[in-house]
Amino acid sequence: METDLNSQDRKDLDKFIKFFALKTVQVIVQARLGEKICTRSSSSPTGSDWFNLAIKDIPEVTHEAKKALAGQLPAVGRSMCVEISLKTSEGDSMELEIWCLEMNEKCDKEIKVSYTVYNRLSLLLKSLLAITRVTPAYRLSRKQGHEYVILYRIYFGEVQLSGLGEGFQTVRVGTVGTPVGTITLSCAYRINLAFMSTRQFERTPPIMGIIIDHFVDRPYPSSSPMHPCNYRTAGEDTGVIYPSVEDSQEVCTTSFSTSPPSQCVFTVTKAHFQTPTPVVTDTLRVPMAGLAFSHQPAALGVGSADLAYPVVFAAGLNATHPHQLMVPGKEGGVPLAPNQPVHGTQADQERLATCTPSDRTHCAATPSSSEDTETVSNSSEGRASPHDVLETIFVRKVGAFVNKPINQVTLTSLDIPFAMFAPKNLELEDTDPMVNPPDSPETESPLQGSLHSDGSSGGSSGNTHDDFVMIDFKPAFSKDDILPMDLGTFYREFQNPPQLSSLSIDIGAQSMAEDLDSLPEKLAVHEKNVREFDAFVETLQ
Amino acid sequence: MNCRSEVLEVSVEGRQVEEAMLAVLHTVLLHRSTGKFHYKKEGTYSIGTVGTQDVDCDFIDFTYVRVSSEELDRALRKVVGEFKDALRNSGGDGLGQMSLEFYQKKKSRWPFSDECIPWEVWTVKVHVVALATEQERQICREKVGEKLCEKIINIVEVMNRHEYLPKMPTQSEVDNVFDTGLRDVQPYLY
């Protein structure tokens, strides 16, 4: 058994290290794209997957890595580094991580190159896959989009850790000994993200409306060394044609032998290496179909910023279809399509969808008793629209005149304050739930004439308000990152709770006498609370 | 040969038990799975490709990587589900543990049956806590996420030591070392 490396082994080792470096960069950059990665296992060896791992090759990234390496390999004093940094839309940037692939002098002459080294490199890549999801920058990169993007930079040479701030931590992914040295893969990551977190929350989102601001131009010229962690499809490349990377098409067809190592067969052949073109799957665009939204396939980190709002907008509109939203979001097996919206929006959708059922139950509970009227009004946090205010007045005043002969319909609806809010139908089938005019105002319009002019004007303008389409998808004071639509959804849900069976006009089985009998009690309760109602109304005006 | 033993401890809320266990077990199995072996003549074999998949946890702020194999995922989920039920039904202090043992089969002469010799055991100890408010749960989500990050780093450290691994088997012996029952990947026998 030879202890010195023969030329074949040396060549193989160099090749392994080169492709290991390229795959390392791919794994790191793909982990910072901001979305979930999914690749398929294949039981039959295709011969094109280095280290027996299905790691896609993004051509741009390969190109950058090769440019940085410039034909060299990591060696002592010459490390390959991938720097991950964050850049805000205002232009501030901060280094988050430095991943280093280093080589030291400690050699392991005894090790078998084409077998043990290869397998250990494969194991190291798996460890890298796991570790890239574990550092703090991962969660940041999943939320990139509107306010910041994640960039990567590859350089070769001395490791520069100064940009990571004080107290950075290091995690060692692993080491592999080879006859020419020991390969070490590690990551140094920033701890002090305080700068970022305060800046994030300083920005107050717009209260009304959505600014769909397409980033048509890439803010980063291609000549700059920093690159956004985004992915353009082959067709989107702005004329930059990467040299048809013949050498990256080398295929590792490795056969392993179970017999003694001397019989190990190892062949490396040049074969056509298919870079899988990304498939744009529209699973997440279905709910957005209702919007006039032009597809921005290119920039994941930058352009998809604008996806954040529209998707949520659509999600709000389509609150009737939580399942539709949930399924794509939760699906783990969707093939990698970098043109999907960022995870932040997916998370929003999922959260939105999961919020809806819980909000429904919450809202359904609130109008259940008249005593809860205070709760209901308070829960709107004093931001009820004029629509609500007028409705409130109207109802109260009508209640004061209840001893007039009025039809049952009116009675039933008078039983409960805020009956205006009870919609005719239970589901939010309409795209604009707030436009849903409740039955009661129309039926009570004959009554209006007999009431004060305030009431009538309140009633009529209440009807007018029914026609308003209030699109407020960014309620004030809502934070971007934590359940952005929670408050708005809750507010809408509370506006249109499912109709209680007691409110249903179909319950004509209830005799009028019963209703009349129970009225005085209810009146007494309401009159007791008159002051509070008044005070509340004052605050709304 | 001694069996390597690693113990990991986590404190989680009830809903997080499954995901925490799956995260740990999948990470271990990611490192302990290869592609399917295809034996050719002359005693050589080639290896299939292992795909990977990111999995977001619903109840923990955490994402883990697992092997892209639905069969393996199903098998693990089944076992973890049983563990979770057992933990819930046992009442008591909410402590439980589950072990993932990698073993090798050794053919024995008749009349002795085959031996299963473990070479690596991963034990996960779970401590279930009950939380009252939503705020506590939110904090727990983040904390458990951070803890799991540490556990993954621990696992990777152990894997990196490159200690004993069974020798690559010949075709006839592959079932003694690997679980060849799955369609797309081949983990070590566990």
From TrEMBL, chain B:
Source species, domain of life: Eukaryota
Cellular component GO terms, alphabetical: phagophore assembly site
Pfam families referenced in this protein's UniProt entry, alphabetically: ATG101 (PF07855)
Primary subcellular site in the record, as a coarse category: other
InterPro entries associated with the record: ATG101
Record family assignment: Belongs to the ATG101 family.
Protein name: Autophagy-related protein 101
UniProt entry tagged with the keyword Hydrolase: no
